Amino acid sequence: MPRGLFITLEGLDGSGKTTQIKRLAAWFEKRGLAPVVTRQPGGTSTGDRIREILLNSSSTGLAPMAEMALMFADRAQTIAEVIQPALDAGKIVLCDRFTDSTEAYQGGGRELGSAKVLDLHRLICGDLQPDLTLLLLPSFDASLARARHRNTRVEAQTGKDESRFEAEQDAFFRRVWQKYREIAAREPERVVLVEGDLGIDEIHDQIVEAVAERLVLVESKKVPQL
Predict the structure, then answer these.
(1) What stretches of 31-169 show up as alpha helix (H) in DSSP?
(2) pLDDT in tens, 178-226
(3) pTM
(4) Beta carbons within 8 Å of 34's beta carbon, 6+ residues apart
(5) Which helix (H) or strand (E) holds 204?
(6) In the predicted structure, residue 60 carries a pLDDT above the cut 70
(7) Which fold is adopted by the domain 5-222?
(8) Torsion of CA 87, 90, 96, 98, to 10 degrees
(9) Annotated domain spans of the chain
């Protein structure tokens, strides 16, 4: 059985990832496909406990390397429990964040560098790569404002404190935002950049266009060449 399709969505909090992953899942479902949807950190019972440590504002004094190690512990569990079994079964997997987030936030934001992140990815994740990454990147000012507003709203609605990263200074997020741009420039075949302060429908249209193109490519590879 051919491996399934692995699609990730990336961007700062508030970039619209959660909304767009739901819309993309619905788009697949209308076409008779049932994608497996997951997120990082989280997505498993172990991952949800790790998420609480990583995102809760009470987790003060967490060393950058410890933070990155927890990110990869969560990722390893999600790959083993959710992503790899689904791909092996030929399913479509939609994941809200993957290693690009770690490279952007810990490699860029925490200034650990890309090399450490990519080395750990090869070691811990078996170098599993998405077939397609959709990077939502509004302007920096809009991204930062949305990120801080989103977590304030989520805490008010659910009581969950997931604002630890949003307490960082603007310079941290500037490094994250810039590292995302570097990743997109480095891997243009995998990463589709959805850029600018666009509306929800405009973003969805660009995502669907990119996904449809990738589906055509995948199907063409399944057809024997004469």
Answers:
(1) 45-55, 64-78, 84-88, 99-102, 114-124, 140-158
(2) 999 999 999 999 999 999 889 999 999 999 999 999 988 776 665 444 3
(3) 0.91
(4) 28, 91, 92
(5) helix 200-222
(6) yes
(7) Rossmann fold (3.40.50)
(8) 30
(9) 5-222
